[in-house]
Amino acid sequence: MDAEDLAEAEDMLSKAKKPNKVIVKIECRDLLDIELISKSDPYAVLYLRGEKEKNWRRIGRTETQKDNLDPQFDTEFKLNYYFEKS
Ligand SMILES: [Ca+2]
Fold first, then answer.
1. Quick check: is 35 in a domain?
2. Ligand 1 centroid from CA 70, angstroms
3. Phi first, then psi: what are they for 16, rounded to 5°?
4. CA distance 46 to 11
5. Among positive and negative, which fits the CA dihedral 78, 79, 80, 85?
6. What pTM did the predictor assign?
7. Quick one: pLDDT at residue 15?
8. Deepest in the core among 2, 38, 46, 81, taking most CB within 10 A?
9. Ligand 1 centroid to 39 CA: how many Å?
């Protein structure tokens, strides 16, 4: 392995370790209307589980949207994401 190979390997390693920031937003369509008088008041809860993890991790929940069966939630989840190397 020469110096150039080493530099390339270090570069790949640093890129592999560095997470990318990903913003996740949630929207839903045609949710069930389970209220009698007005429409449902939905919110969403985001869970993540890594490839090697056994349990789901609760990341957070969105705001509640009143009387909306097609919500586009405003809450943003900023996550670290490690893209697979090709
Ligand atoms: Ca309602």
1. yes
2. 13
3. -65, -35
4. 33
5. negative
6. 0.70
7. 67
8. 46
9. 4
